[in-house]
Amino acid sequence: MAKNFCKFVQTMRNNLLLFIILFVSPSSLLIGQAKDIYMLFTPTFNRTPIILEEEYYTINETDSIRFNGCKFYISDVQLLHNDKIQFKEKNSFHLINANDVASMSVKLIIPKDISFNQIKFNIGIDSLTNVSGAMGGDLDPTKGMYWTWQSGYINIKLEGQSNLCKTRNNEFEFHLGGYSPYPTCKSVVLNVTQKDNIQIEVDISKFINSINLSEQHHLMTPGKEAALLSEKFIQVFSIVQP
Description:
- By secondary structure, the protein is an alpha+beta fold.
- The protein has helices spanning 2-23, 26-29, 127-131, 204-208, 224-233, and strands at residues 34-45, 48-49, 56-58, 64-81, 84-88, 93-97, 105-111, 118-123, 154-162, 171-177, 186-191, 197-203, 218-219, 237-239.
- A hairpin with a 2-residue loop joins strand 4 and strand 5 (84-88).
- The chain is globular.
């Protein structure tokens, strides 16, 4: 598993380098007061990279799981030094989609000489943005992450099959969102040492193991349960040490 994960991360790094060469404008490289760093998200299950709709992953000796979709928003990205804000991204909304390699790389343009040892971001969309109605970019409703103006954005989508689910085709669906009276936008703070490309593992097994999938397998509306599951979901993030 560890070997497969390291190979996958190396592939992602190579793809990131190609992306930088092809799409970063020469003019941006000449700005002496700023530099680019990247957040690179890698969805896994028990440290094994997730391949959507192709492979089953072992939950325990008798049960397995397969993923058809894994999307979530990150927003309000900040770099901190000992809990003090050193950088805050403007218009900070990014949709991470396990089926879109490019979306899993988030570029931050930061002051060149900034010092930081933590990264902070929200999982989900804040209440003010929700009440502003549907927007463009990664917030565009065509991305499939928007309910209605009353319910707002879906922060997290996790879909697939497991033999634990006594449902049609053993399917599970978690669409977690909502901003009032049960807010589902939650904060993540991670300590970092690597300052150029910040590798972030998203181990979905931590979420699945925190619930009883045989009883809790469908949630498609805002509410108290969505807020509780959102709190569990933020535990899946950790820094990959170089």
